[in-house]
Design brief:
CATH topology: Rossmann fold
CATH class: Alpha Beta
Number of strands: 11
Structural class: alpha/beta
Shape: globular
Distance between the termini: 19 Å
CATH architecture: 3-Layer(aba) Sandwich
Protein backbone atom coordinates (compact mmCIF):
# COMPACT_ATOMS: atom_id res chain seq x y z
CA UNK A 1 0.00 0.00 0.00
CA UNK A 2 1.01 3.61 -0.53
CA UNK A 3 1.25 5.65 2.62
CA UNK A 4 -0.79 8.86 2.55
CA UNK A 5 1.52 11.40 4.20
CA UNK A 6 -1.11 14.17 4.25
CA UNK A 7 -2.53 12.75 7.46
CA UNK A 8 -0.60 9.65 8.56
CA UNK A 9 -3.00 8.90 11.44
CA UNK A 10 -6.02 8.78 9.12
CA UNK A 11 -5.22 5.30 7.87
CA UNK A 12 -5.56 6.62 4.29
CA UNK A 13 -3.43 4.02 2.52
CA UNK A 14 -5.47 3.66 -0.68
CA UNK A 15 -3.91 4.81 -3.96
CA UNK A 16 -7.38 5.51 -5.32
CA UNK A 17 -8.12 8.35 -2.90
CA UNK A 18 -6.98 11.86 -3.73
CA UNK A 19 -3.72 12.52 -1.92
CA UNK A 20 -1.51 15.61 -1.97
CA UNK A 21 1.53 13.65 -0.78
CA UNK A 22 2.46 10.01 -0.48
CA UNK A 23 5.39 7.74 0.25
CA UNK A 24 6.58 4.91 -1.98
CA UNK A 25 9.28 2.78 -0.39
CA UNK A 26 11.89 5.30 0.82
CA UNK A 27 10.81 8.35 -1.25
CA UNK A 28 8.22 11.08 -0.68
CA UNK A 29 6.13 12.40 -3.57
CA UNK A 30 3.80 15.39 -3.95
CA UNK A 31 0.83 15.70 -6.29
CA UNK A 32 1.92 17.17 -9.63
CA UNK A 33 -0.73 16.41 -12.29
CA UNK A 34 -4.33 15.50 -11.54
CA UNK A 35 -6.27 12.89 -13.50
CA UNK A 36 -8.25 15.75 -15.11
CA UNK A 37 -5.06 17.40 -16.40
CA UNK A 38 -3.86 14.03 -17.67
CA UNK A 39 -7.14 13.40 -19.49
CA UNK A 40 -6.88 16.78 -21.25
CA UNK A 41 -3.31 15.96 -22.38
CA UNK A 42 -4.39 12.54 -23.68
CA UNK A 43 -7.27 14.13 -25.60
CA UNK A 44 -4.89 16.65 -27.19
CA UNK A 45 -2.64 13.83 -28.48
CA UNK A 46 -5.59 11.71 -29.63
CA UNK A 47 -7.15 14.57 -31.60
CA UNK A 48 -3.85 15.33 -33.37
CA UNK A 49 -3.26 11.67 -34.27
CA UNK A 50 -6.82 11.25 -35.54
CA UNK A 51 -6.48 14.33 -37.75
CA UNK A 52 -3.06 13.35 -39.11
CA UNK A 53 -3.55 9.63 -39.72
CA UNK A 54 -7.16 9.25 -40.81
CA UNK A 55 -7.23 6.77 -43.70
CA UNK A 56 -3.58 5.67 -43.22
CA UNK A 57 -4.13 2.48 -41.14
CA UNK A 58 -1.35 3.09 -38.58
CA UNK A 59 0.24 0.50 -36.32
CA UNK A 60 0.46 1.74 -32.74
CA UNK A 61 3.43 0.31 -30.84
CA UNK A 62 2.99 0.64 -27.08
CA UNK A 63 6.16 0.73 -24.97
CA UNK A 64 5.65 -1.37 -21.85
CA UNK A 65 5.50 -1.19 -18.96
CA UNK A 66 5.14 2.55 -18.46
CA UNK A 67 2.85 3.51 -21.34
CA UNK A 68 0.08 1.01 -20.65
CA UNK A 69 -2.28 3.48 -18.94
CA UNK A 70 -1.63 6.26 -21.46
CA UNK A 71 -2.08 3.84 -24.36
CA UNK A 72 -5.31 2.44 -22.95
CA UNK A 73 -6.89 5.89 -22.58
CA UNK A 74 -5.40 7.19 -25.84
CA UNK A 75 -6.70 4.33 -27.97
CA UNK A 76 -10.24 4.89 -26.66
CA UNK A 77 -10.04 8.44 -28.05
CA UNK A 78 -8.26 7.79 -31.37
CA UNK A 79 -11.11 7.40 -33.83
CA UNK A 80 -9.46 5.72 -36.86
CA UNK A 81 -8.92 2.12 -38.00
CA UNK A 82 -5.61 0.89 -36.61
CA UNK A 83 -3.76 -1.99 -35.00
CA UNK A 84 -1.90 -2.17 -31.70
CA UNK A 85 1.26 -4.08 -30.79
CA UNK A 86 3.53 -4.03 -27.75
CA UNK A 87 7.26 -3.86 -27.01
CA UNK A 88 9.12 -3.71 -23.76
CA UNK A 89 12.16 -1.46 -23.46
CA UNK A 90 14.13 -0.59 -20.37
CA UNK A 91 16.86 1.88 -19.47
CA UNK A 92 16.04 2.92 -15.88
CA UNK A 93 17.29 1.60 -12.55
CA UNK A 94 15.67 3.32 -9.57
CA UNK A 95 15.43 7.05 -10.34
CA UNK A 96 18.31 7.19 -12.86
CA UNK A 97 18.74 6.23 -16.51
CA UNK A 98 21.38 3.55 -17.06
CA UNK A 99 21.87 4.83 -20.66
CA UNK A 100 21.77 1.19 -21.77
CA UNK A 101 18.61 0.31 -23.71
CA UNK A 102 17.41 -3.26 -23.30
CA UNK A 103 14.69 -4.70 -25.55
CA UNK A 104 12.94 -7.17 -23.27
CA UNK A 105 10.00 -7.87 -25.60
CA UNK A 106 10.21 -7.31 -29.35
CA UNK A 107 7.64 -6.22 -31.91
CA UNK A 108 6.01 -9.36 -33.30
CA UNK A 109 3.94 -7.73 -36.03
CA UNK A 110 5.37 -6.46 -39.34
CA UNK A 111 4.33 -2.90 -40.07
CA UNK A 112 4.66 -3.00 -43.83
CA UNK A 113 4.56 0.44 -45.45
CA UNK A 114 2.04 2.03 -43.12
CA UNK A 115 2.88 4.55 -40.39
CA UNK A 116 4.13 3.35 -37.02
CA UNK A 117 3.24 5.46 -33.98
CA UNK A 118 5.30 4.64 -30.91
CA UNK A 119 3.31 5.33 -27.75
CA UNK A 120 5.56 6.26 -24.83
CA UNK A 121 4.70 7.51 -21.35
CA UNK A 122 7.61 9.94 -21.01
CA UNK A 123 10.64 11.11 -22.96
CA UNK A 124 13.43 12.62 -20.91
CA UNK A 125 17.00 12.03 -22.16
CA UNK A 126 15.65 10.59 -25.42
CA UNK A 127 18.21 7.78 -25.48
CA UNK A 128 15.71 4.91 -25.28
CA UNK A 129 13.48 6.31 -27.99
CA UNK A 130 16.34 7.14 -30.36
CA UNK A 131 17.63 3.59 -30.05
CA UNK A 132 14.22 2.07 -30.78
CA UNK A 133 13.39 4.40 -33.68
CA UNK A 134 16.75 3.54 -35.26
CA UNK A 135 15.96 -0.19 -34.97
CA UNK A 136 12.61 0.30 -36.69
CA UNK A 137 14.16 2.35 -39.51
CA UNK A 138 16.93 -0.21 -39.99
CA UNK A 139 14.15 -2.80 -40.43
CA UNK A 140 12.77 -0.74 -43.34
CA UNK A 141 10.05 1.32 -41.66
CA UNK A 142 10.18 4.80 -43.16
CA UNK A 143 7.20 6.50 -41.44
CA UNK A 144 7.91 6.27 -37.70
CA UNK A 145 6.22 8.77 -35.38
CA UNK A 146 6.40 9.30 -31.63
CA UNK A 147 3.51 10.06 -29.27
CA UNK A 148 4.38 10.77 -25.64
CA UNK A 149 2.22 11.86 -22.76
CA UNK A 150 5.09 13.74 -21.10
CA UNK A 151 8.26 15.38 -22.42
CA UNK A 152 11.16 16.82 -20.40
CA UNK A 153 12.88 19.34 -22.71
CA UNK A 154 15.39 20.16 -19.95
CA UNK A 155 16.64 16.56 -19.91
CA UNK A 156 16.46 15.87 -23.65
CA UNK A 157 19.90 15.05 -25.10
CA UNK A 158 18.90 14.25 -28.69
CA UNK A 159 17.65 16.22 -31.69
CA UNK A 160 14.97 14.03 -33.30
CA UNK A 161 11.41 15.36 -33.58
CA UNK A 162 8.62 14.23 -31.27
CA UNK A 163 5.40 14.28 -33.24
CA UNK A 164 2.77 14.30 -30.47
CA UNK A 165 3.36 15.68 -26.96
CA UNK A 166 0.70 15.80 -24.26
CA UNK A 167 2.57 18.01 -21.77
CA UNK A 168 6.05 19.44 -21.34
CA UNK A 169 7.31 19.17 -17.76
CA UNK A 170 10.45 20.09 -15.78
CA UNK A 171 13.19 17.55 -15.12
CA UNK A 172 11.64 16.08 -11.95
CA UNK A 173 11.34 12.38 -11.15
CA UNK A 174 7.66 11.42 -11.26
CA UNK A 175 5.43 8.42 -10.58
CA UNK A 176 1.83 7.45 -11.27
CA UNK A 177 -0.34 6.82 -14.32
CA UNK A 178 1.99 4.06 -15.53
CA UNK A 179 5.23 5.66 -14.33
CA UNK A 180 7.04 3.86 -11.54
CA UNK A 181 9.65 4.03 -8.84
CA UNK A 182 11.29 0.59 -8.72
CA UNK A 183 8.07 -0.89 -10.20
CA UNK A 184 5.72 0.74 -7.66
CA UNK A 185 3.29 3.59 -8.25
CA UNK A 186 2.14 2.67 -11.76
CA UNK A 187 -1.50 2.20 -10.68
CA UNK A 188 -1.92 5.71 -9.25
CA UNK A 189 -4.48 7.68 -11.30
CA UNK A 190 -2.66 11.00 -10.71
CA UNK A 191 1.01 11.87 -11.24
CA UNK A 192 3.31 12.76 -8.35
CA UNK A 193 6.80 14.28 -8.30
CA UNK A 194 9.58 13.47 -5.89
CA UNK A 195 10.13 15.95 -3.03
Amino acid sequence: MYKNTDNPSSGGDSPFLFMNTLKINDKEFALYLTRHQIEQAVRKVADAITADLDGKDPLFVVVLNGAFMFASDLMKMVNIPSEIAFVRLSSYVGTQSSHVVKEKMSLDKPAGKRPIVIIEDIIDTGITMESYVNRLREAGNTDVRIATLLFKPGAFQKSYPIDYIGLEIPNDFIVGYGLDYDDYGRNLPDIYKIV
